[in-house]
Amino acid sequence: MGTTWIWLITIVTILLIIIRPAKLNEAIWALLGAGILLVTGLISPQESLLAVGKGMDVYLFLIGMMLLAETARETGLFDWLAFQAMRFAKGSAVRLFLLIYAVGTIVTIFLSNDATAVVLTPAVVFAIKSTKIRNPLPYLLICAFIANAASFVLPISNPANLVIYGKSMPGLYEWLGMFLLPSVVSVTVTCVVLYFTQKRALSESIGPVQEVSGLSRGGRTALLGIGGTSVILLVSSYFEVDLGLPTAITGIITSIIVMLSSGISPRKIIKGVSWAVIPLVAGLFVIVGALGKTGSVHAIAVLLEKHAAGDPVATGWGAGVLTGFVANIVNNLPLGLIAGSSIQAAHIPIAVQNAILIGVDLGPNLSVTGSLATILWLGALRREGYDISFFKFLKYGMVVMVIPLLLTLAVLFMMAK
């Protein structure tokens, strides 16, 4: 009976996160679901704390990235970057589309998909507001879709990668050998498909952009901080060090230096950070902890091992596609935790394991609830006065996710032969 209630509470919580009754923040519903599980005894206080603790590296990673992003926004760095992008676009919507996509790819690879959501989105919004772009949707969608499409180029490109592999994270060279070519396919095909869904909107010309002043001293410091963070993350990844603490430290140090040199109020930066994302993630981890008590992890491990022994290619295809869709139901971060636990408990071929990771990383392009990066992106848009509904995003996600996922998995299994 307890298993039934856990699943029921989980499903209702996820629906509330998607629907957002009364437009309340997603974190409220995640915490409500976790609280009900705790109060009803379906998960104990000790088990809840253990589940929350499993996300510590992710919380630190997010804190560092959000502080960097808010500091950069306050210094005018995003305004300056947007102005440079508009200058290079030279009035061409297609050129601007490709430029933003290229920048988003680089940011995702070296700073993570969550950084793309919180760093790139404000710059794109400024570019839209600073010129006469009648339909901003193509440029806004880039920030969401590329954040997931490029999120498995490197181990640091997605916090879900840290959750899936845990202490068994492959080295950098081994990772590139497995995922570089599939990542190229994912990024390229996503770009092509997204372009064709937005082709009509991209036929317009772009008006002149408003001039902005040169990059301030604080802006230069923030830019150096972001660049330094990417280097530190690469080095940490190479030496297989957890990425959360280094990210948090660089984010805090950069913010302090900028505040001291530019006279920006600490209260202003702290107030601007979307702190609600931390309890949202913690609530999801508690829900996943409760699901673990239902025996689902063991059942998945047994099922994977059984089918992989008979037909590993079919199992990989099924696991990759199914994981891609399920990520949009439970969010890919907690799903990564379930998948990682299941993979470690099962003896399966590496190609099946890699297919599951691709499903976890690329699959969330289907809906706004699929990944933490997309939720952060949506929050950044709302802050700037934009909102894209669940069903509007789903309309594009059905195409922009499904085609790249199938082609990327095809390349993965071609490599495995």
For this entry, give a set of tags:
417 residues, 0% strand, mainly alpha, single chain
Explain how this protein is built.
The chain is mainly α. Helix content is 76%, strand content 0%. It is built from 21 helices and no strands. Helix 5 packs across helix 7, helix 7 runs parallel beside helix 19 and helix 15 packs across helix 17. The longest helix has 26 residues. It starts with a helix and ends with a helix. The model has no long low-confidence stretch (mean pLDDT 87).
| Overall spatial form | globular
Assembly type of the shown chains?
A: single chain
**Element order: H for helix, E for strand:** HHHHHHHHHHHHHHHHHHHHH
Gyration radius from CA atoms, angstroms = 21 Å
Count of alpha/pi helices: 21
Counted beta strands: 0
Terminal Cα span:
45 Å
Structural class: mainly alpha
Query: Which strand-content bin applies to the residues?
Result: under 5%
Low-confidence stretches: none
Share of helical residues: over 70%
Mean pLDDT: 87
Sheet having the most strands:
none
In short:
The protein has about 425 residues and is mostly helical. Helix content is about 75%, strand content about 0%.
Please give the structural blueprint.
Elements: H1 2-19, H2 26-39, H3 45-53, H4 56-74, H5 77-89, H6 93-111, H7 113-129, H8 137-149, H9 159-165, H10 172-197, H11 217-238, H12 244-262, H13 266-272, H14 277-292, H15 296-310, H16 312-330, H17 332-345, H18 350-362, H19 372-383, H20 390-400, H21 402-416
Helix pairs in contact: 1-2, 2-14, 3-14, 4-7, 4-11, 4-12, 4-13, 5-6, 5-7, 6-7, 6-8, 7-8, 7-19, 8-10, 8-19, 9-17, 10-21, 11-12, 14-17, 15-16, 15-17, 16-17, 16-18, 16-21, 17-18, 18-21
